[in-house]
Amino acid sequence: MSALLDVKGLRTVFETRAGTVCAVDGVDVEVRRGECLGIVGESGSGKSVTFASVMGLVRSPGRIDAGEILFDGRDLRKLSQKELRAVRGRDIAMTMQDALTALNPALTVGVQLAEVLEAHDETLPRGRRARTRAIRERSAEILGLVGIPSPDSRLSQYPHEFSGGMRQRIMIAIALACRPKLLIADEPTTALDVTIQAQVLELISDIRAKLGMSVVLITHDLGVVAEHCDRVMVMYAGQVVEEGPTTEVIGSPSHPYTRGLLGSIPRLALRGQPIHPIEGQVPDLIDLPAQCRFYSRCADRTDACLTPIAVRQVGPHRKARCILAGEDTQ
Ligand SMILES: Nc1ncnc2c1ncn2[C@@H]1O[C@H](COP(=O)(O)OP(=O)(O)O)[C@@H](O)[C@H]1O
Ligand SMILES: [Mg+2]
């Protein structure tokens, strides 16, 4: 069966005074039906911008410069703003990195849920009273689904009356209100403590199984990917540097950057090996040289890495952008 989301050659740039920032540079993403795909990489690697592009949420000074975004066979880049709004919320929903700023502080949770249902739920009854009642019932049901106790009474509360973990749940509830085919969760647990983190991730996994939807889980934590994702895509400096089934990528990473990420996570690092963060920083995304983007930080670099590096096939289901990995596909 064809992929639910198939992004090809996406390039998203921001025009700044210092020059053109190429935040996403030739990214391909495939999300299959029912799978959980993890997107991992340090801060600034282009994870959020990639999926903001998919959602049609990139605003000036940013723009999508190239690429195709096929969702269920339709190219989202060719839709009008109105058509895209209909897809967003009904078919694809995204939860933002920061729940407190993404929720409207001036509206109760019930009103925010009602807005989504009003806009996208075509099964609501037409008559005014029946409709209001149905929206209320459905909203309470969704809050219950994301594990909010006594949902009925909490519909009339404002976002600030909830704890951080509960706010993340509410954002997930709003995203799920119309049973999207694809949920994009951008760092849903970064601001939360470890126990709440685990609960929110379990919740997303449960709901995925119940509703049969696909999930893209954006995180900078490979440990989270190891536990929750079928496949993983590693991003670095606006490009995909490695992708494949999670167990294979984590079991035997092909790209030095993936190895670096693994080595910096205590619970995933190989036993007996020292834990150390990757030295150096993500390069400036303005006027990048045409060499391997990881060059300055790579322990395995050679002069051969000073030319553009193509993606190489590593085994049947894996790819990596490193001359030391697999075989050249071009
Ligand atoms: N509005 C903007 N203006 C200029 N640069 C931006 C803007 N938004 C994002 N960027 C740049 O795009 C790059 C990728 O950002 P982002 O996708 O948010 O990274 P990640 O989510 O992986 O942490 C960063 O270098 C960031 O500075
Ligand atoms: Mg981000």
Report on this model:
This protein is globular. It has helices at 47-54, 81-90, 99-102, 109-120, 128-145, 151-154, 164-176, 194-211, 222-228, 246-251, 256-263; strands spanning 5-16, 19-31, 36-40, 62-71, 74-75, 92-95, 182-186, 214-219, 231-236, 239-245, 312-314, 318-320, 327-328. It has a domain at 1-80 and 219-330: Rossmann fold. The chain contains eleven helices and 13 strands. The model has no long low-confidence stretch (mean pLDDT 90). The strands form two sheets. It has a nine-stranded mixed β-sheet, with helices on both faces. The protein has a four-stranded antiparallel β-sheet with strand order 2-1-4-5. Helix 4 crosses helix 5 and helix 7 (164-176) runs parallel beside helix 8 (194-211). Helices cover 33% and strands 24% of the residues. With 330 residues, it is of the alpha/beta class. The longest helix has 18 residues, at 128-145. It binds adenosine-5'-diphosphate (ADP) and magnesium ion. Residues 47-48, 97, 186 line the site of magnesium ion.
What is the CATH class designation of the domain at 1-80 and 219-330?
Alpha Beta
> What is the H/E string?
EEEHEEHEHHHHHEHEHEEHHEEE
What amount of the residues lies in strands?
15-25%
CATH topology of the domain at 1-80 and 219-330: Rossmann fold
Q: Outline the biggest β-sheet.
A: 9 strands, mixed
Roughly what percent helix? 25-40%
Q: How many DSSP H or I helices?
A: 11
- Low-pLDDT runs of 5+ residues are none
Coarse shape: globular
Q: Strand tally, please?
A: 13
The CATH architecture of the domain at 1-80 and 219-330 is 3-Layer(aba) Sandwich
The strands making up the biggest β-sheet line up spatially as 6-7-8-3-9-10-12-11-13
Which structural class do you get from the secondary structure elements? alpha/beta
Bound molecules: adenosine-5'-diphosphate, magnesium ion
For the terminal residues, how far apart are their CA atoms? Answer: 26 Å
CA-atom Rg in angstroms: 21 Å
The CATH superfamily of the domain at 1-80 and 219-330 turns out to be P-loop containing nucleotide triphosphate hydrolases
